[in-house]
Design a protein that fits this description.
The protein is an alpha+beta fold. The strands form 4 sheets. It has a 4-stranded mixed sheet with strand order 10-9-8-11. Strands 5-6-7 form a 3-stranded antiparallel sheet, with no helix packed on it. Strands 1-4 form a two-stranded antiparallel sheet. A hairpin with a 3-residue loop joins β6 and β7. The longest helix has 27 residues. The chain is built from 9 helices and 11 strands. The termini are far apart. Bound molecules: fe (ii) ion. Fe (ii) ion binds next to α5.
Length: 378
Amino acid sequence: VQTYESIRHQTLNLCAPLTVEDHVVQPYDFVSPPKWHLGHTTWFFETFCLLPHYSMDAFDPHYGYIFNSYYESVGAHVPQNRRGVLSRPTLEDVRAYRAHVDARMREVWNDQPEWRQVVQLGLEHEQQHQELLLMDVKSILFAQPGKPTYAAVGEPGADIPRTSGWDKFAAGIYEVGFDGDGFSFDNEGPRHKVWLDEFSMAKALVTNGDWREFIEDSGYQRPELWLADGWRWVQERSILHPLYWTHSRGEQWCEYSLSRGLQPLHAENPVSHISYFEADAYARWRGCRLPTEAEWEVACGNQSCASHWQWTRSAYLPYPGYQAFAGAFAEYNGKFMNGQMVLRGGCFATPTGHYRPTYRNFYYPEMRWPFSSLRLAR
Ligand SMILES: [Fe+2]
């Protein structure tokens, strides 16, 4: 129960630096207001732990519709792009909802050992939302003309020392995917064999300084570097630089960070907030490529959580023999295995203890609001 309390409390901690107004806006369709995260993570425990096992009423009959994200088997829900129009329930109502559900969870904590696995899934889910919350908060605060800071959150700060060089791996049969005790998401298994040809992996992530060279070499203006969908995206959106870079102080590049707001670009820090399309074009410009997720896991799987998620060239697909979670949780991962690309490695916003080397994150190739970066392979 201490784990439950501390993870639930951490979500509130993450919201503590925000104003009431910060909690309710939705600058883009894919960004959720922090108030919605607070309600949705609570709805998860109420819907999947409390209501099926106890004769109790829902805290509010409308909350199922408001805070269900995408579980079609559970019922209808507010469309994702309409979350920012919800002025009710108020932030105070949602905090009361959290307190109510937490109190009930404490009361029944020792009752039902069979739902312990669902509680664990609920906590892993809440930790995923803690990372999403920081992505969304960054988008929300950057949308404000004053570019306010949020709080210290462990982003790479001043220039960090750069490692260079490559690690080389022999051709052969390797095993990847989760196998063992402890929690994993269904998409991480089963563990299986893969054939890899000889490859090399860069020891370090691509830096802001590296990326500036790509920009100065007209990387965003050269169609031969880009995938067709990527080139269309660059043209339609007039993309010229990573998401949170600006030119606001004369000609000097600045970068917005949660901890420090808008500040001059640190050349040695990993580049971040780039799309798959940008990562792919950059790698091609360097005469390299992105790693596959199997190469990444073989080369980097023994490393701890990284500062940034790293795009791979692997489409998000089921592993051979994939078995989705049972019941409504079959909708957790499997139904998104279409049109998205895998990122590996975790990031500074990943809660401690939440990350595993087999963890597969996934986003659509044009998405730049994740804390994404890249590592070159060849
Ligand atoms: Fe969720």
